[in-house]
Design goal:
By secondary structure, the chain is mainly alpha-helical. The chain is 77% helix and 0% strand. Helix 1 runs antiparallel to helix 2, helix 2 packs parallel to helix 4 and helix 3 crosses helix 4. The chain has four helices and no strands.
């Protein structure tokens, strides 16, 4: 339980720092829940789930730019990728 709480605080704080780079507050509000779920498993799950979410978001963004459906300056919601990374790692560990 302590690790889940620590992971929730760590991920929430990390995403709060990313607001200075353009991350939306909705993603910041979602991050502690994802951190708690991943932290319940292990610290490596927190790292892997976070990295997976960013990797999925990057692949989607590059795909949209390459196909011409988006420009480099456009912003997209990161919440679905945060959830996808969290749930994929969590389901693999369960």
């Amino acid at each position: 339980m302590a690790r889940a709480l620590a992971a929730a605080v760590a991920l929430g704080a990390g995403y709060l720092v990313l607001t200075f780079a353009g991350m939306g507050m909705g993603d910041v509000k979602l991050a502690p829940a994802a951190g708690a779920l991943l932290g319940w498993h292990s610290w490596s799950a927190v790292i892997t789930g976070t990295f997976t979410g960013f990797l999925l978001g990057a692949v989607a963004a590059v795909t949209l730019v390459v196909t011409g459906r988006a420009h480099r300056e456009e912003q997209a919601a990161f919440g679905p990728f945060l959830l996808a990374g969290t749930l994929s790692v969590s389901l693999l560990l369960t």
